[in-house]
Structures are given as structure tokens and as C-alpha cells.
Design a protein that fits this description.
The structure is a single chain. This protein is α/β, with parallel strands linked by helices and 432 residues long. It has 2 domains: 33-135 and 257-426, Alkaline Phosphatase, subunit A (3-Layer(aba) Sandwich); 149-253, Phosphopentomutase (Alpha-Beta Plaits, 2-Layer Sandwich). Helices cover 35% and strands 19% of the residues. It has helices at residues 3-31, 62-70, 76-81, 121-128, 149-159, 171-185, 209-223, 261-267, 278-281, 296-309, 321-327, 332-349, 403-411, and strands spanning 35-41, 47-48, 108-113, 163-168, 188-192, 197-203, 230-237, 244-245, 250-253, 272-275, 289-291, 313-319, 358-362, 379-386, 394-399. The strands form 2 sheets. Strands 1, 2, 3, 10, 11, 12, 13, 14 and 15 form a 9-stranded mixed beta sheet that branches. α6 links the parallel β4 (163-168) and β5 (188-192). It is globular, with a radius of gyration of 23 Å.
Length: 432
């Protein structure tokens, strides 16, 4: 062997050794860390809430209705955790076809009933983070001419562009209808929904993305006095007949009026890692580091990245595809496929958890793709709490999503927050 060949071979061997040591280093780091991972399965409701009729949502049940619509769901990991055990706890609970109850769930299981007024993303996430939103956020209730004239006038004046749309609408539908006019005139497409939102759509070839974001910032300031939950940037691309929204969406949330669990953690020196649209939903409050992933599969990779590269801390993730791509578009087949993909990912992710880690799976509201309309649905949400080496317990029905925040606070040894009951203490094996 030539000297060059010998040196190349030695160099390759050293790279392999270095890689092996790096892998071992990550393993040993994991042995010494304690993480809580909270994953919001966006819109994955499990059955109508007791007050569903007040929202026009009687009969909604996202998971059971999808299971029936597709002939059964394939969710072996979630089933083992105890997802199929939850419907039996509900007053009008219906089984999830393809995901029956198991005798010994790996996770503690329950359902949560929202106490805040509303069924939107911000309300659900903020209650999960420890708040109660009563009265709820302002709704633009008029189907047409939805926004107040003074709001429109000031928005047009400050942005220098006209506003078209101005009604409750499905985002895809109104972009198809007004997209060509928006490109021709340079106007903003603005619309709302049953949620507390002021949404602004713009074709990225007609209006630069940064200008759209600036306009959303202006709208956020103008909507604050009304207590509007979110201003949402909805960029899209393409031509008439083939418009499609990009993954550059941004949410501009109303500023919380009291500290979230994320802020309490950061204040005590516990890092918080945001995944997906979490930083936007929480108005960037209490986030140490964030990666704004645009779809669920990207978010899964970011969760893995934080697990592998960071020390102690709280990973707060939103898996958006269920709601964004399939719930609002009333696509039960696509929704079922997205559930299957996440279930497969969970099967690979759970072994990454160390003995001192915690995984919580829940949702922020429902969005039954078999139900009327295109809006969220007022539902119970599932609750799965998994810790390696601990047996699952029945957590019952929780009165308030903020039990999650109280449990996170307990997990990290913080003093109790103003609301909620710690469900971790219901586990017979829990010792801390």
C-alpha cells in the first residue's frame, strides 16, 4: 500500500472512531438529562364537549368519525399508549374504529374539557399553557362586511394597499376566487372565520413576503384594542386554477395578560424549546430557542434534534398538518394518513426517551373533517402521559386544559401555578 493509501485508510478509520465517540457522548448526555416533551396534535379531538351545541358542534367527534369514514384507523403505537381507552370515559363517547381499548396501556390516559370560551388555536394552547380565556377573544361575527370600517380604513392607510374580501371564508376558496384580482390590483385579500382571526393572503409574486409580514404587524397593532386572537399571514403562489399556499405562514398572537408556563420555566432557568408555530401562538413569550418548521414531518425532525442536542428542558411542539391540510379542507382520508404517519414516528421516537423524561400528547381543539362547515369543533381532547418504566393509570376527565401546565410545573419542581390539578401525581409509580 502506498503512503497516500495508508494515510487515507488511517484517516477513514479515525473518522469512524470519532463518530462512534460522538454517538456515545450523546448517549451519556441523554442519561444525565431530564426533558418534558409536549406535543399538540393540532385539532385531534375525541368527542363532542358538553357545551358543543352552544357552538353548533353537537355530533362532532374528530377521531371516532374519521375512523368510521375510512373503515378504521391504523394507530398501533397510540393504541398501546391507551388512545382507545379514552372514549369510554366520555359521557357520549364513541369508540375509535381500528383503535380499541387495551388491557394495560403504556401511558396514563384521560380526556380534557376546555373551560375557556372559544375553540380556536390560541385559546386552546394558552389554556394548555396555564391560562383561562374568559371572556373569549373578539369574533368578527358578520358573514360579509366582517371588519369594522374604521379598522379597514386605518389598515389601508398604513399599508398603502386596498383590502378585498372582508368576509368569513375558507382560505383556499377565497384565494381561488380573488387570487387573480389580488395579483392584478395589488390589494390584500383579508378574511376571517368562526375563530378570532384577521387573515391576510397575498401572492408572493405580487407582494414580497416581508411586506406581507409588515402588514400583519400593522394589523396586529390595530386589532389589539378589539382583543383579536390572531392575525395570520397566508402567503400563496401560482396562477389562477393552480394557487397553493406556501409554508411561510406566520401567526401574530394577542399578547398574554399573565405569565404562561413557558415564561415561568424560563424565569427559573429551565430552557424552553419551541417547535412548529408554537413561538407565534405564544406571542414569543418564554421561548429559549425555536425552530419554525412548516409541516408535521419537519416538526418531528426538530423534536428529535432538540432531544439529541439539548440538555434539560421543555420541548413544546405543534404538529400542524391535521388541522391545516385535512381538518379545514374536510379530508378524512388525508387526516387518517397523517395520523398513521405520526403514529409510526412515535413508535421510533418513544425509545429515545430516557428514564427521567416525560411525553405528553394532547390537542388544542377538534376539527372533524366529516362535520359541516370548515371550522374547528368544540370537543374533548385526548390526554396521554407517558414515562418510561411506569404503568399507565386512568386520569379521568380533566376540567381544564391547564392541568397540563400544572403537571409540567410539578415535573420541573416549580411551585404550583394558579390553575389546574397535577395529573402526574395520580400515577402510583410517580416519585419525585
Amino acid at each position: 500500500m502506498s503512503f497516500h493509501g495508508y494515510w487515507k485508510n488511517l484517516s477513514n478509520q479515525w473518522k469512524k472512531i470519532h463518530s462512534a465517540f460522538h454517538a456515545l457522548e450523546i448517549v451519556f448526555q441523554r442519561l444525565d438529562t431530564m426533558k418534558a416533551v409536549l406535543i399538540i396534535l393540532d385539532s385531534v379531538g375525541i368527542g363532542e364537549a358538553p357545551d358543543a351545541a352552544d357552538y353548533g358542534d353537537a355530533g362532532s367527534a374528530t377521531l371516532p368519525n374519521i375512523g368510521n369514514a375510512v373503515g378504521g384507523l391504523e394507530l398501533p403505537t397510540l393504541q398501546k399508549l391507551g388512545l382507545g381507552n379514552i372514549p369510554h370515559l366520555l359521557p357520549n363517547g364513541r369508540p375509535i374504529k381500528g383503535c380499541p381499548a387495551v388491557e394495560k396501556p403504556l401511558a396514563s390516559f384521560g380526556a380534557m374539557q376546555e373551560v375557556s370560551e372559544g375553540k380556536d388555536t390560541v385559546t386552546g394552547h394558552w389554556e394548555i399553557a396555564g391560562l383561562e380565556i374568559n371572556p373569549g377573544f373578539h369574533l368578527f361575527t358578520k358573514k360579509t362586511d366582517s371588519f369594522p370600517p374604521e379598522l379597514i380604513q386605518e389598515f389601508e392607510s398604513q399599508t398603502g394597499r386596498k383590502l378585498i374580501g372582508n368576509r368569513q371564508a375558507s382560505g383556499i376558496a377565497i384565494i381561488e376566487e380573488l387570487g387573480e384580482e389580488q395579483i392584478r390590483t395589488g390589494a390584500w385579500i383579508c378574511y376571517t372565520s368562526a375563530d378570532s382571526v384577521f387573515q391576510i393572503a397575498a401572492n408572493v409574486d405580487a407582494i414580497p413576503l416581508e411586506e406581507l409580514y409588515r402588514a400583519c404587524g400593522i394589523a396586529r397593532d390595530l386589532c389589539d384594542p378589539l382583543k383579536v386572537g390572531r392575525v395570520i399571514a397566508r402567503p400563496f403562489k401560482g396562477k389562477t386554477g393552480s394557487f397553493e399556499r406556501t409554508e411561510d405562514r406566520r401567526d401574530y398572537a394577542y399578547t398574554p395578560e399573565e405569565p404562561l408556563i413557558t415564561e415561568r420555566l424560563v424565569k427559573t432557568g429551565i430552557p424552553v424549546y419551541g417547535v412548529g408555530k408554537i413561538e407565534d401562538i405564544l406571542a414569543h413569550r418564554g421561548i429559549t430557542k425555536s425552530i419554525h418548521s412548516g409541516n408535521t414531518e419537519e416538526s418531528e425532525k426538530v423534536v428529535e434534534q432538540f432531544m439529541q442536542t439539548e440538555g434539560d428542558g421543555f420541548i413544546f411542539a405543534n404538529f400542524i398538518d391535521f388541522d391545516m391540510l385535512y381538518g379545514h379542507r374536510r379530508d378524512p382520508q388525508g387526516y387518517a394518513a397523517a395520523l398513521k404517519q405520526v403514529d409510526q414516528w412515535l413508535g421510533k421516537f418513544i425509545p429515545m426517551l430516557g428514564n427521567d423524561d416525560l411525553l405528553i400528547l394532547t390537542a388544542d381543539h377538534g376539527n372533524d373533517p366529516t362535520f359541516k362547515g370548515t371550522d374547528h369543533t368544540r370537543e374533548f381532547v385526548p390526554l396521554l402521559s407517558y414515562r418510561p418504566g411506569e404503568s399507565g393509570e386512568c386520569l379521568g376527565i380533566r376540567n381544564g386544559f391547564y392541568d397540563v401546565a400544572q403537571s409540567i410545573s410539578s415535573f420541573f419542581g416549580l411551585s404550583p401555578i394558579p390553575r389546574g390539578v397535577d395529573f402526574l401525581m395520580q400515577s402510583n409509580n410517580h416519585e419525585r
